[in-house]
Amino acid sequence: MTATLVKEASPPAPVHPDSARARRQRRRGRVIALLFAFPALLLLGALVVYPVLFSIGRSFFDASGNEFVGGGNYTEMFRDPTTLKAVRNTAIWVVVAPTLLTGLGLILAVLVEKVRWATAFKLLLFMPMAVSFLAAGIIFRLAYDEDPDKGVLNAAVVSVHDAFEGSSSYPAARAREGEGLIKGTDGSYVTGAQVSPGGTAAVLGLVGVAPKDLPGDAAPALAAAAGKAGADEVRGVVYLDFTPGGGGEPGVVDQEESGLPGVTVEAVRDGDTVARTTTAADGSFRFTGLDGGAYALKLPSSNFAPPYDGISWLGPALVTPAIIGAYLWIWTGFAMVLIGAGLAALPRDALEAARMDGAGEWQIFRRITVPLLGPVLTVVFVTLVINVMKVFDLVYIIAPGPVQADATVLATQMWLVSFGGGNNQGLGSALGVLLLLLVIPAMVFNVRRFRRSER
User: For the chain, how far is it from start to end, CA to CA, in angstroms?
Assistant: First the structure.
């Protein structure tokens, strides 16, 4: 009993002398860490937190910033047709661009594994990432130019079109008024006076063609205009009714006037084309085996059709897909490299086991490679979604002024409303807040995804 009482009355164990020192060290470590982080926190507050809070507050005021309008700017934002078009275009960007980029990156990453020069190929595809959006916008603005002499895309399109369809050699040619040719509603020319087999050669003069634009094989037309046709034939000449250096008589083939080769001529009777031919180098043409009677000579409108100018890449209908194409050129290498890194980390034993079991490459790709790359593909897709929501430079630079409204997205609309002539920072701030609200869910999803992957 005495021993028990003595034991209960014994003093508590002394506090370890290092515990207080450890607490002081931890507090000092927190202070030092805070001091090191303070410059970054200061910059974060000045460049991110303050602008966000200021924009939110500014969105509740009018254009002058003096009158509180509450949610008026947000109401106006969804009533403005241009803003609604910007929302629609942004939705197109969010759906189309990341999907195409992720798909292209996956396909290229898989294919690059099969080639020996994979590193050089990756370097070439990644190089556009080194080009600024400003420079890329200028490059593609020139590439999309509608003039085939300037725009490389239209130059290629016109070359392919002309290889299959051909083009008119005399788009600017026309007939002189009162010289025997009457212009039809479809752009063709028909002789006012009819001709008959066995008569004199028909003389069809055209103007509007510069001598320097004549084909290289064009020959003088004077000899072709002389003589008389056979009993069952109609003959004539199509020539340039212009004498270099001046002089000459309109409607008459002069000594130095050239024939127009390659012109289609038709013999028409009772409204029907009964014969067709093409002029020779000296502009002469001939129809043989014709029945007796009167015929009209017709120069079809195809002789004077304007040349094919290609596709209006930057027109209202195609301007957004064209800009997305420029974006793909820049970011495909990024998607390919990230997905390629994930592909390199895949367990090769699973792929080899599938091949041993008789699975084809397409089955391996669809049932093994893509599922295992799911986390990487998700991160790439979400990162690109965040990026396309902020796209500004390409849209602003590539889209010409007349179609700027057709290509606008939320970022460009925010700038145009605030500083590009609208001078309404209240509405522009509301657009900025809307853009922030759209980006935040994707950012939160990405952050959570990274944290789960770290665990």
Answer: 57
Place of tokens 């003959």: 235
* Pairing assessment for the beta strands 202-206 and 234-240 based on DSSP bridges: parallel
Summarised one tens digit per residue, pLDDT across range 12-50 is: 555 454 577 778 888 888 889 889 989 998 998 898 899
Cα-Cα-Cα-Cα dihedral of 98, 99, 103, 105, to 10°? 0
How many distinct structural domains can be found in the chain?
2
Q: Do both 195 and 321 map to the same domain?
A: no
- Closest to 297 measured CA to CA, from 393, 380, 204, 406: 204
Q: Using CA atoms in the order 73, 78, 81, 82, what is the torsion angle rounded to 10 degrees?
A: 60
Each residue's pLDDT tens digit, 58-108: 999 988 888 898 888 899 888 888 889 999 999 999 999 999 999 999 999
**How far is the C-alpha of 144 from the C-alpha of 311, rounded, in Å?**
9
Mean of per-residue pLDDT scores for the chain: 86
C-beta of residue 269 within 8 angstroms of C-beta of residue 295: yes
How far CA 183 is from CA of 116, 187, 269, 271, 350, in Å, comes to 64, 6, 17, 15, 76
Give the CATH number for residue 327: 1.10.3720.10
Instruction: Report the C-alpha gap between 109 and 314 in whole angstroms.
Output: 31
431 and 357 in one domain?
Answer: yes
The pLDDT of residue 53 is 92
Tokens of 86: 């910007």
CA 307 – CA 189 distance, rounded (Å): 19
H or E element: which one contains 355? Answer: helix 348-356
Q: Please name the residues in contact with 207: beta carbons below 8 A apart, sequence gap of 6 or more.
A: 173, 174, 175, 176, 240, 241, 242
d(CA 404, CA 410): 12
Do 328 and 444 sit in the same domain of this protein?
A: yes
- pTM, entire model: 0.75
